[in-house]
From TrEMBL:
It is found in: Golgi apparatus membrane. GO terms for cellular component: Golgi membrane. It is a single-pass type II membrane protein. Gene3D superfamilies: P-loop containing nucleotide triphosphate hydrolases (3.40.50.300). This is Sulfotransferase. The keyword Aminoacyl-tRNA synthetase does not apply. It comes from Phoxinus phoxinus (Eurasian minnow). Its EC number is 2.8.2.-. Residues 46-360 form the Sulfotransferase domain. The lineage of its organism: Eukaryota, Metazoa, Chordata, Craniata, Vertebrata. Keywords: Carbohydrate metabolism, Glycoprotein, Golgi apparatus, Membrane, Signal-anchor, Transferase, Transmembrane, Transmembrane helix. InterPro entries: Carbohydrate_sulfotransferase, Gal/GlcNAc/GalNAc_ST, P-loop_NTPase, Sulfotransferase_dom. GO terms for molecular function: N-acetylglucosamine 6-O-sulfotransferase activity.
Length: 399
């Protein structure tokens, strides 16, 4: 059932524009469906969590995954990349795009190309983390409005075939997919123009120095992905991690600038950027803003759950899919300041210069500054909020 309703008619908010401050415009624009009641998406909303490796996208994903109106899957594009490993990101992006389009439409037949028989639900990437695959009608384990139990789901909810997953998908008002395999927005344009989809993009970014440190710790697990990001190029070992990070940083700038400064009409009102650091620092407010952006209502049990994860009161937390608390997420986010050698920090700041200034991460100029924890390297978020001008003009105005 679709719970969300347009908060006010568009005409009213247009009349209000001259009278009120930009902040209302900002809220008004984002909370309004871009094409009210004209979309044959049957009221369904499709949300793409667009991020990069080790940027906290699992954390963000859980925020949607646990919502009773959401069918959530992680990384459908993983199947594409793992099946077609010889390629580079560029040549695979349309296959990834078409895969997510099918999954948004609850058509899992696209997986025929990427998942060998028997196609059990358990073959879907990180399937047991998807609450909807552990809830009716996919599996009668977790009621839809309860927080998921990943371990039990893993043991009890595997079935042969993807038909039940398809059927489950169709019963939700929101389909949310997390994907780290897009490096630009243009390949998504056909999805934004597709009348059967009502796509919203949430772009999650994180301090590249924290990303680097986290990638360093899981370099092995990321090896196949890394080769694809580097287009299979033969890059010396000691240079690889910087070149990959550079690609990632460039992609964030590309995506952000396209959405903010040169967005075509069909992208307007459908893009929202969020920094991981703001999410873990100000969790409830940021989640509420994202829910509003995609038309989801906050529920009492979600609020409780968020309180629990942000206050580290993990009652039986070992059994939950989501173990880290925001509080230690914040500590982990700052670990680069004490553990990364300054030469590496300098190198990262160099390859990610553009992204850092665009997204509000300040460079440190010395080892002393790096280790000085009182020095905040995050530019306040307010300076990075924009709103669209009310005209058809594609330029964006700073609030
Ligand atoms: C697929 O699921 C069925 C039904 O739960 C199970 O019996 C079978 O062992 C699973 N097969 C694989 C390959 O996981």
């Amino acid at each position: 059932m679709l719970r969300w309703r347009a908060p006010k008619p568009p005409v009213l908010s247009l009349l209000l524009i001259p009278a009120v401050a930009g902040v209302l415009l900002y809220v008004g624009w984002y909370s309004r469906p871009p094409f009210p009641n004209s979309s044959p998406s049957e009221g369904k909303v499709h949300v793409l969590l667009l991020s990069s490796w080790r940027s906290g996208s699992s954390f963000l994903g859980q925020v949607f995954n646990q919502h009773p109106d959401v069918f959530y899957l992680m990384e459908p594009g993983w199947h594409v990349w793992m099946s077609l490993q010889k390629g580079g990101a560029r040549s695979l992006r349309m296959a990834v795009r078409d895969t997510i389009r099918s999954v948004f439409q609850c058509d899992m037949s696209v997986m025929d190309a990427y998942i060998p028989q028997p196609q059990n639900v358990s073959k879907l990437f990180m399937w047991s983390h998807s609450r909807a695959l552990c809830s009716p009608p996919a599996c009668f384990l977790t009621p839809r409005d309860e927080i998921s139990k990943e371990q039990e789901c893993k043991q009890q909810c595997d079935v042969q075939g993807l038909k039940l997953a398809e059927a489950a998908c169709k019963t939700y008002s929101h389909v949310v997919l997390k994907e780290v395999r897009f490096f630009e927005l243009e390949s998504l344009y056909p999805l934004l123009r597709d009348p059967s989809l009502d796509l919203r993009i949430i772009h999650l970014v994180r301090d590249p120095r924290a990303v680097f440190r986290s990638r360093d710790q899981s370099a092995k697990a990321l090896m196949k992905d890394s080769a694809i990001v580097l287009e299979q190029a033969d890059v010396p070992e000691n240079e690889r991690s910087y070149q990959i990070l550079q690609e990632i940083c460039r992609s964030h700038v590309r995506i952000y600038e396209t959405a903010m400064f040169k967005a075509p009409d069909f992208l307007r009102g459908r893009y929202k950027m969020i920094r991981y650091e703001d999410l873990v620092h100000n969790t409830l407010a940021e989640i509420e803003a994202m829910y509003q952006f995609v038309g989801l209502e906050m529920t009492e049990s979600l609020q409780e759950w968020i309180y629990r994860i942000t206050h580290g009161k993990g009652k039986g937390s070992k059994k939950e899919a989501f173990k880290i608390t925001s509080r230690n997420a914040e500590d982990v986010s700052l670990a680069w300041r004490t553990t990364l050698p300054f030469e590496k920090v300098q190198r990262i700041q160099d390859v990610c210069k553009g992204a850092m200034s665009q997204l509000g991460y300040q460079a440190v100029d010395s080892e002393k500054e790096q280790k000085l924890m009182d020095l905040n390297v995050l530019t306040p978020r307010e300076r990075y909020q924009f709103s669209w001008l009310p005209s058809k003009d594609t330029t964006a105005a700073k609030v």
